[in-house]
Here is the input.
Amino acid sequence: MSIRGLRFQTNQGDHIQTDHIFSFLNANDYLWYIDNLDTLDAELDINFNVRFTDGQQLLKDFSEHAVHAIFGEFFAFKKENEHVSNEPEINNWDDFVQSSAQIVVLIADCYYIDVYLKDPEVITSCFQFISSRGFTPELIDQTDARYKFKVW
Here is the structure.
């Protein structure tokens, strides 16, 4: 069985901040491309949507604004792979595997979070972290029904 990542669902009363999701992924180590971000902060949405941002800045802004992402598509690239001018073409699992992206995080309706990862060790540590926070992660394998990496 080929493990692709994990998914988990938060409960309506959990109010897990978006920065908490990215902190366990070592977001500081990556350059993040963000698309379809929808939060309760319209200015933040404008500043981050359809562009690359440094992981450290992403965590700082999400933490300072206590962001709860309603929707969002996040693609992490190693910083040495500076993709500063082109929108990545990562529409599905096959595109992800062939790309230089390392992580894909999809957030839908605030509560449904899918995390796709290339590194099996990171999958294991993420699974343990999410479990320790009281959530019940589910491993995503090749039978995954998601055919597009889109939340809209």
